[in-house]
Each structure stands twice: as structure tokens, then as C-alpha cells.
Design goal:
The structure holds two protein chains of two kinds. Chain A is an alpha+beta fold. Chain A is built from 30 helices and 14 strands. Classes of the chains: A alpha+beta, B alpha+beta. Chains A and B meet through helix 20, helix 29 and strand 12 of A and strand 2, helix 3 and strand 10 of B.
């Protein structure tokens, strides 16, 4: 494009008026007259406007496209307003990242010593703030890694414990009979402490529950100063429970007494033999119990005793845990004064202990990150405010609108707020690769050296090197981080990113930012090719709504609506209709909008805060990605609705092949390949191996349709409600198995519509008419849940095989991959009172 | 003099021939062919945001890359990246929903490979709306099943099948059905089978007294 010189006669007023006219006519108002009072410009229609632009006074050549006219006007405007020319920074992966200060104003030491001094001071404080923030983040990263390693050890113990429990399965259902005789507490404690102990014991015997509560409060008050608030309650309660249990001789809550029972059993193998018939198992059981009890003893004491010591002192703890305080007798037969004690408690208590420790570590891990976040946010806040202060006076961020916006935000306030609230939207935003380009573009468009490129690359590398060691290894981590950025920088193709990101899985966040930044930098260079006027037209309608959307993304409804309303008020569109329409437009257009116009400074103006905060949160949260996301079974969540066993491997249906239905066979293959996902149901088709689920294996029967599963939502909340996230619905299985076999069915995911489809095609058989003759493999079974207030089909499965009595069916998005129904005199029977079978749809 | 010239020319020709024979010959490049594609030929339910990956039998040079063309029917705006022995095709937006695409690969204007795939027919709006409804239904089903299993712990252990019998639960009659798989007339044998069946049911979680009825093979219930 030929550069058109700015005419000498052209003033800022005139340029502004011509720009306004451009926007006016561009908005399709081609025949409506435009006038500007300050310059006396008046154009009856677009032709007159263009003629003027082509005149000698202005000098834009004839036949210049509208797009280029817009660009020329913007360039002239920039020249007159002396907006700094963007400087572009190439990604540099070889150096240690540094935050470089890049002043936008020229302050001369001699001419303005005060300003120079002030600027120097701000530079220094910004540098220190940056350094502190980085150190905080680094500390958080290291601490989190330590906690993660500790957790891994505990989880290994949990696994071992499960194996041990399986070995003594037979013992689990057995009881022994235990008598605990208390003895006066023998102690060398000072009189004051002895009295506390005796009073406590007396109170515990009289009212165990109340005493536990009071003791928990007492412990809490004593350890509150030295214990993180997030875990002080759980620690105090647990310790009080154990302590009171020990004082009262309550075997259920006292690891000390449990240990005595185990020792008694171990010391007398004949006791075990008395309750186990098989001598081999009896011998093995003694060994297993010893192993469990050792662990139980150690683990139980690790926490509660440490807390007790912290609260009351070591001597107090020792006196309390003295096993001479009671005598434990064990019998295999019921006897007077003996109470039954389930043997499963021995291993269960150990399990609970381990799981409790795991939970506490999880809390601590989050705490380490959060406190790091808070500190880092504060420091970064200072830094960003410093950067804005140093911008030239005409910069858009110093304008009234931006200042108002920032004051609404408090700049860092929403970040702090979000941290306090759990920050999930922010974290999601921050690690979303989609914001990488925005960050890069800001850097290009504003000329700010945010250190984004370098930092992002380095953080991506760091994350991969440390946390990703188990997956990719250090060398691979470096290679991926660098190669991805280089590729993206060279090609500038966003398309190349998605493959790299897909390969990186969970690591896509940090690295995606790095890649995205490089792409964004490139996009910034393409600014001149963007049709600004069109963007302006778009913004005219949607600008306030961007704020609303951005706010919603950032801080939830409160911030989003507040900011959005502010924006709407500014735009004079403060109406419910305007909000609704604009919101709809925002979400409808945001997708294509980002692709087309991401690099415009106008967008940057409005989006500058969200991405900046996203950047902050990215740096902060880079630590959060050091711990590889956990497989399902280790996620630490209790199975939510459904309550089925959670496991990380995929179990097969165990069904054998000889069926004559290709649909049933394909359905079985698909279900065999499913892993557990949301709610521990079988609804996750694998894309193996991914950092999300490093133990996943490739589908045995590809393709597995992995794109369906919403990993992000799963990692945030595996028991999410309402269940709107993508997953392998029960109907999805039907769609796949049927369509792959060339059987066309209605394009629906909703089982009631699926039933209607079978009915309309005459393929539906009511349950009462189903027999072994027509219940052919591949048929769809339609279920209705009884009493859920919805008289319609709720679920579907596919018949795999039948015999005269039983129908075997397979299903996805269920706790069980395979279930059975009975054929009876009334047809195909459901689960009376719970689930009705409405009928089947024939293939 | 002439003789010398002839000798020199002869030596030069000889040396040239020698050089020609000794110098390594550039290997004739293998013709480009397609080894595999993602998605596979005739794949269905291909994610609309997918990229298409074509893997070639060898790396291609920039020059060769210029001679490799991709044609997509129906036409869709894409970015095509040549990386080593791979060609990556990315739609500028997304592929359409439920569209069957045919991709042809040309080298030097000659078609060397073609494959087809069909994209996922479900729009995001449909996935969101219907998926949410269906997931609610699935949750209700699983909750009901869980409650049912809690009340009937034997459920997951049925049917029980041995060489002699098969056990299911007849919900109409509210008792277990023990079907003999061979005709049984011997009272002792029947008694043994039933004892074994009841023992297995007890182990499966059925509470005593266990209600049951027996049927012979090929007999209706």
C-alpha cells in the first residue's frame, strides 16, 4: 500500500471529523448526510465524502479502497496525536527472562531533575515489585512440588493399604470381642497438667460428644496462631476425637487402643485361628495385621499427636498415649463386658487416617498457592500502576474512560476478590491459550514490554520441566516450549497451535500462552491490514457488552454486570432490552470477532484490563500447573451422585463376542474403551496419553471420539451440577453404534426424542411385548426413572445378548457398563419402584 | 602439436568420465504418496474443529511442497501447513456440521490420494441443550440404580449361571428363578442343585429366607 503523506493543511480536528464521517458512512448510512460543527464539514452522501478525500486538499488517490482509506485516516490521526509507534519484540528463548522497564516518555535529567528522580524511583520500585512477585511465585511452585511429592507417598500407602485389605477380605466380616479396662492415669506431669488430664477424662466419660467439641475448641485456640486457618478446624477436630476416644477407652476413635487390640491378636495367633478356619489364611492374616497396625500406629500418631503436642506440650501427649492407661483383653466369642469390634475397623481406620492426611495436604497445597497468589497480586498491582503512571499523558489508558474503568476494577481488586472466591473463572481465563494472542497484541500495539513473551516461554518451560517431568521430561519440555513458539512465530498460523496444544494437554495453558503471545506479536504487526472502521462500527454496538462479557469472565456476575451497566450507561443504552440484546450479540459474535479483529488497538483499549489480569494470573498460576492433574481415582472427590467405585483404569465389559449384531459389537467396543469421567460414571472416551490422564491407554477400538469430553470442566469439578458439560452421554453410544453401522436414526441426544424416532419408524416394542424372540441384540432399551417427577424416558442402553431369562445390556454415562434385566410373564421387567422399562427400539 | 592436443583432450574427456562415474549420483526421489490420514477414510462424527493431517511417505522439500495441492469438496477456506512429511489442513473457522468432505491430494497436477470423512452432525447449541437434558436423565437413572442396589445387593451378581442352572430374579413373582439347564428328574440331584444355588445366592447378598422357584429348560416362567 502506498503511503499517503499527511497534508500540511490537515488539522487534528479535520482528521477527527473525517474519521467520524468514515465511521458514519461505513455503518451503511451511505446516503444520509454527515455534518461536523467544529470543522463545518458537510457531506450529503458518501460520494461527496469520497470526492473530498480525492481532492487535492486531502490527496487520497482515486479508487483507493474503503479499507485503505480507513487505514490512511488512522495513520494520519496517529501522526497527529503522536501515539508511540509499536515496537515488536521477537521471542527469545535463550536468555533468562527479565522484566525490562520501557519508559514511554522522555524525561531529561538536566531539564527536569525532579521528574527524573521520580521516574527513577518508580523504575526501582517497579523492578523490586517484579522481583518480589517472581520470588513469591517461585516459592509457591517449590512448596507445591514438595507437597505433591508428599501426597504421592501417601497415595502409594493408600494403594498398598487397599491391597492388604483385599488379602484379609475374609476377616473383614468377622468380629472379635474387646474389653478395655481403664486404669488411673500414670504420669510425671506437673500437677496443673495432671489435673487438666484428669478433668478431661472425667468430662469425656460423662459426655463424650460435648467434651470432644470443647476440646476441639481448646486445641483450636491454642494452635490457631501457628496453623493455617484453612486446616485448623480439621486438625483440631480430629485430634480431639482421638484424644477423647483414648481417654474413654472408645476403641472406635482411639488408635492407641486399636493398636493394643492388634498387638493382642498378633501375639496370639490362635485367636486369629479361632475366627478363621483356614490356617494358611490365619497365618497370613497375622502378618497383614502387623503391617497394617504398624502403619496405623505411625500414621495415626503423626498428626493428632503432633497437634496435641503443639497445643499442650510433649509431656502431656506422652502421658495421654501411654498404653499402660488401660488393659485390653480380646476374645473370639461374646463374653460379658466385652463389646464386639469389627476387624474391618483395623484396616479401615488406617485408610481413614491416610485419606484424612491426603485431604489436609490438599488443603495445604491450595493454601501455599493462594498465599503466593495474594502476595504476587499485590506486588504486580503496584507494578502495573507504576507502568500506567509512566505512560505519556495522551495515552488511552490515561483517558477518562480508562481511568474510570480502572477505578471500577480497582485494577487488582477483582483479582484479589477472585482469589478469595476460588478464582476458577480467572484461572481458566489465565491459562486459556485464547488470551495469549491478546497479550501479545497488547505488547505490540502499546509498545509496552510486559516481558510477556519471555516470561511466558520461560514459565512454560519451567512448568514442563518440573511438573511435567513424569510426562515429558526436561529435554522434551524445553523442546516443546521452544519449538512451539518458534513455529508459531514463523508461520503465524493459529492453526498450528491447536495440534501442539492438544499434544500438551493440561500443559497447554502455560505453553499456550507462550505460543499465543508469539502469534499475538505477529498479529500486532498486521495491524495496518485490519479494517479499523469496520471494527469501530462493531464496537459502536458492542463495546459496552465487551465489558459486560469480560467482566463476567473475570469476576462473575457482580463485576460483570456492574461493569457492563457502567459501559452501557456511558453509551446511553441503559435499557433492559439493550442489555439483553447486547449480551446475546456479545456471545454470538465473540467467537468470530476474536479471529478477525483481535489485533486492533480499539479492542485492546477495551480488553486491556482482562488480559493484563490474565497475564498476572498466568504468572501466578504457572505454579498451579506444576502438579499434573490427577487421574479420576486420585482426584480426592467423593463419588457424587451415583456413588459408584471410582477407578482410574478402564475395565472391560467382560462380555464375549458371539453375538450376531454389528451394532451390539460396536457398542461393546466403544464401552470397553470408556474411562470414568464425571461422577465416576463411564463417560470419558480416551485421547491417550494426555497429561490430564497420564495412565490412559489408546483406544483398543478407535476412533474413541475423545473430543467430546470437557476436560477443563472436569478438572474444575468432577461432580459438576448442573451437568451441562460435554461427555459420552448414553444416547451418544446409540448414535455412534448405529451411525457407524450405516443405520440412520434421528439426529438427537435426548432419549425421549430418540424413542419418538423409533416409534415413528414403527420400530418400537413396548416392554410388555418384549420376549426373547424380539429382544434382538443391538436394540435400544428405553428407561424411565420412577418418581423423579419427569414422566419421560431418562436413559437408554443397548441389548448385547439375550437368553430365555435374561437380557444383558450395555450403556455409557452410567456407573455400571453392563447390567441385566429379567424376562418374565409380563415382558421385559424393570427395577420395580426405581426404574421402569418402557420398551425397546429395534435396529 | 595436434597429437598433444588430442592427448590433452583425451585425458580431459577421460577425467570427466571418471568424475562422472565416481561422483555420487543424486538419488532419485521416491514419488510422493500418502501413508495415512487423520481422520481416516470414511470416518464419521469427526469433530468440527478438527484439523486434517496427511502423512506422506517421506519429507518433502519446499519446491515439492509447492507442487502438492489439496482440494477439498465442498470447498472450505483452510490454512495448509507443510511440515516435514506431514500436511496439516486447518479450516479458517470450523468444518460444517454433519457435512461429508472429500479431500484430494495432488502432486504435480496428478491426483495421488483421496479420502472422505463426515463431521459431527450436532451443533454446539444442540449439544448444550440436549446434552444437559440427557445428562440429567442419566444422573437420575444412576441415582435410582444406586438406591436399588443398596436395597438389593445381589443385583450386580446376577445372573448366576453354572453348567446346571441359571438364576435370575423374577420381579413379578418377587422371587428368584432357578432354571435347570438340563432336564432334571432326579430328586437328589435337584436338591443338590438347589442347595448350591441358594448358597451362591447367599454369597451374592440375598438374605435368608430366600424365595425361589425352579423351571425346567424350555419352560415358560
Amino acid at each position: 500500500m502506498t503511503k499517503v503523506q499527511l497534508p500540511e493543511t490537515m488539522t487534528l480536528d479535520k482528521i477527527e471529523a473525517l474519521r467520524s464521517a468514515f465511521g458514519w458512512f461505513y455503518d451503511q448510512e451511505l446516503n444520509k448526510p454527515f455534518s461536523d460543527k467544529s470543522t463545518s464539514f458537510k457531506f450529503n452522501d458518501v460520494t461527496q465524502y469520497v470526492d473530498y478525500l480525492n481532492s487535492d486538499e486531502v490527496g487520497i488517490p482515486q479508487k483507493t479502497s474503503a479499507k485503505h482509506i480507513g487505514i490512511i485516516l488512522e495513520q494520519w490521526y496517529e501522526n497527529l496525536t503522536q501515539t508511540p509507534t509499536p515496537e515488536y519484540e521477537q521471542a527469545d528463548q535463550t536468555k533468562t527472562p527479565q522484566y525490562e522497564s520501557q519508559s514511554q516518555t522522555t524525561i531529561n535529567k538536566e531539564s527536569n531533575p525532579e521528574a527524573f528522580k521520580e521516574a527513577q524511583k518508580r523504575e526501582e520500585s517497579a523492578r523490586i515489585a517484579e522481583q518480589k512477585a517472581r520470588e513469591d511465585v517461585q516459592r509457591g511452585i517449590e512448596r507445591q512440588q514438595q507437597i505433591y511429592e508428599e501426597q504421592q507417598k501417601i497415595r502409594e500407602q493408600i494403594r498398598e493399604n487397599k491391597e492388604l485389605k483385599q488379602k484379609i477380605e475374609e476377616l473383614q466380616e468377622k468380629d472379635v470381642y474387646v474389653k478395655v479396662e481403664e486404669k488411673p492415669i500414670e504420669t510425671d506431669l506437673p500437677e496443673e497438667k495432671t489435673k487438666i488430664l484428669e478433668d478431661l477424662k472425667q468430662a469425656a466419660i460423662e459426655n463424650q460428644q460435648e467434651t470432644t467439641k470443647q476440646l476441639a475448641e481448646e486445641i483450636k485456640s491454642r494452635i490457631a496462631d501457628t496453623t493455617p486457618p484453612e486446616i485448623v478446624d480439621s486438625l483440631s477436630n480430629q485430634t480431639a476425637l482421638y484424644t477423647v476416644g483414648t481417654l474413654t477407652g472408645d476403641i472406635s476413635y482411639s488408635p492407641t487402643i486399636q493398636q493394643s487390640v492388634v498387638e493382642e491378636l498378633s501375639a496370639n495367633p490362635e485367636t486369629i485361628s479361632g475366627i478363621l478356619k483356614n490356617p494358611e489364611i490365619a497365618n497370613q492374616t497375622v502378618n497383614v495385621i502387623n503391617a497394617l497396625s504398624t502403619g496405623s500406629q505411625r500414621e495415626a500418631y503423626n498428626l493428632s499427636q503432633r497437634v496435641l503436642t503443639s497445643a499442650f506440650g510433649e509431656d502431656f501427649t506422652e502421658a495421654l498415649s501411654n498404653q499402660n492407661n488401660f488393659v485390653v483383653s480380646v476374645s473370639t466369642t461374646p463374653e460379658p463386658e466385652y463389646s464386639a469390634y469389627s476387624m474391618s475397623n483395623i484396616s479401615d481406620s488406617y485408610s481413614q487416617e491416610l485419606e484424612g492426611r491426603d485431604r489436609i495436604l490438599e488443603d495445604v497445597k491450595g493454601l501455599a498457592v493462594d498465599s503466593g497468589k495474594t502476595r504476587a497480586v499485590t506486588e504486580f498491582n503496584k507494578y502495573l500502576i507504576g507502568r500506567i503512571d509512566r505512560l505519556p499523558s495522551g495515552h488511552f489508558l490515561k483517558g477518562e474512560f480508562a481511568q474510570n474503568t480502572m477505578s471500577i476494577f480497582g485494577l487488582g481488586a477483582p483479582v484479589n476478590w477472585a482469589v478469595a472466591e476460588g478464582a476458577s473463572p480467572i484461572i481458566k481465563l489465565a491459562v486459556s491459550s485464547g488470551y495469549g494472542p491478546v497479550l501479545g497484541t497488547i505488547q505490540s500495539a502499546t509498545g509496552w514490554n510486559l516481558g510477556v513473551t519471555k516470561t511466558a516461554v520461560e514459565a512454560g518451560k519451567l512448568a514442563l520441566e518440573k511438573g511435567g517431568a513424569a510426562i515429558a521430561g526436561k529435554a522434551a519440555g524445553q523442546a516443546v516450549g521452544q519449538a512451539a513458539v518458534q513455529t508459531a512465530t514463523k508461520t503465524g498460523l493459529a492453526a498450528t497451535l491447536s495440534t501442539a496444544l492438544a499434544g500438551l494437554g493440561a500443559w497447554a495453558g502455560p505453553v499456550g500462552i507462550a505460543i499465543g503471545t508469539a502469534v499475538g506479536t505477529l498479529l500486532g504487526k498486521l495491524l495496518e491490514k485490519i479494517d479499523w472502521a469496520k471494527v469501530k462500527g462493531w464496537l459502536k454496538d458492542n463495546g459496552p457488552i465487551i465489558l459486560l462479557g469480560g467482566g463476567l469472565l473475570l469476576g462473575g456476575p457482580a463485576w460483570g454486570i456492574g461493569l457492563g451497566l457502567g459501559g452501557l450507561a456511558l453509551a446511553g443504552k441503559f435499557t433492559a432490552l439493550g442489555i439483553a440484546r447486547g449480551t446475546w450479540r456479545f456471545f454470538r459474535r465473540i467467537g468470530t470477532f476474536f479471529l478477525i479483529t483481535i489485533g486492533t488497538p480499539f479492542i485492546v483499549t477495551l480488553l486491556v484490563l482482562p488480559p493484563l489480569i490474565a497475564f498476572i494470573m498466568f504468572v501466578i498460576n504457572s505454579g498451579a500447573y506444576l502438579v499434573p492433574p490427577k487421574p479420576v481415582a486420585e482426584s480426592g472427590f467423593s463419588p457424587g451422585t451415583g456413588g459408584y467405585e471410582c477407578r482410574e483404569d478402564r475395565i472391560t465389559t467382560g462380555l464375549e463376542y458371539p453375538v450376531n449384531s454389528p451394532i451390539a459389537i460396536r457398542a461393546r467396543e466403544i464401552v470397553d474403551d470408556l474411562y470414568q469421567g464425571f461422577w465416576c460414571f463411564w463417560n470419558r472416551s480416551p485421547k491417550a496419553p494426555t497429561p490430564y490422564f497420564p495412565n490412559d491407554e489408546e483406544p483398543n477400538f478407535p476412533p474413541g471420539y475423545p473430543d467430546l469430553f470437557d476436560y477443563e470442566a472436569f478438572l474444575q469439578n468432577p461432580n459438576t451440577t448442573p451437568p451441562s458439560q460435554n461427555l459420552f452421554w448414553c444416547t451418544w453410544l446409540i448414535q455412534k453404534a448405529y451411525t457407524e453401522n450405516g443405520v440412520k436414526i434421528l439426529n438427537t441426544l435426548w432419549s425421549p426424542d430418540m424413542k419418538l424416532d423409533f416409534e415413528s419408524r414403527g420400530k418400537f416394542v413396548p416392554a410388555s411385548s418384549v420376549s426373547s424372540l424380539n429382544a434382538v441384540p443391538g436394540s435400544v432399551i428405553f428407561f424411565d426413572v420412577v418418581g423423579n417427577g419427569k414422566d419421560r424416558i431418562d436413559h437408554v442402553g443397548i441389548i448385547y445378548q439375550t437368553n430365555g431369562d435374561d437380557v444383558t445390556y450395555i450403556q455409557s454415562n452410567a456407573g455400571l457398563k453392563v447390567e441385566h434385566l429379567t424376562l418374565g410373564s409380563s415382558g421385559l421387567q424393570g427395577k420395580p419402584g426405581y426404574i421402569d422399562v418402557i420398551g425397546i427400539g429395534l435396529p | 602439436m595436434k597429437k598433444k592436443i588430442y592427448i590433452i583432450i583425451g585425458v580431459l574427456v577421460f577425467l570427466a568420465m571418471l568424475l562422472f562415474l565416481l561422483l555420487p549420483k543424486p538419488e532419485k526421489a521416491l514419488p510422493i504418496s500418502v501413508i495415512t490420514t487423520t481422520p481416516k477414510n470414511n470416518a464419521i462424527f469427526v469433530f468440527e474443529k478438527s484439523e486434517v493431517l496427511i502423512e506422506l511417505n517421506r519429507e518433502i522439500t519446499i519446491e515439492e511442497g509447492n507442487n502438492v495441492k489439496i482440494k477439498i469438496e465442498p470447498e472450505v477456506k483452510t490454512e495448509i501447513v507443510y511440515l516435514s512429511n506431514k500436511i496439516r489442513i486447518s479450516p479458517e473457522t470450523n468444518f460444517g456440521y454433519g457435512v461429508r468432505y472429500k479431500i484430494k491430494v495432488y502432486s504435480l497436477e496428478k491426483e495421488i490420494y483421496s479420502f472422505e470423512f463426515t463431521t459431527n452432525p450436532f451443533t454446539p447449541e444442540q449439544l448444550e441443550k440436549e446434552g444437559k437434558l440427557q445428562a440429567e436423565g442419566d444422573l437420575a437413572y444412576n441415582e435410582a440404580t444406586k438406591n436399588f442396589i443398596e436395597k438389593n445387593p445381589w443385583y450386580t451378581n446376577l445372573p448366576i449361571e453354572t453348567n446346571d442352572y441359571r438364576i435370575v430374579y423374577d420381579y413379578d413373582k418377587e422371587m428368584f428363578r432357578i432354571r435347570f439347564l438340563q432336564e432334571q428328574t432326579d430328586e437328589e440331584k435337584i436338591k443338590t442343585i438347589i442347595e448350591d444355588a441358594l448358597d451362591k445366592l447367599e454369597r451374592a447378598g440375598a438374605k435368608k429366607p430366600i424365595k425361589y422357584y425352579t423351571v425346567q429348560p424350555d419352560t415358560q416362567f
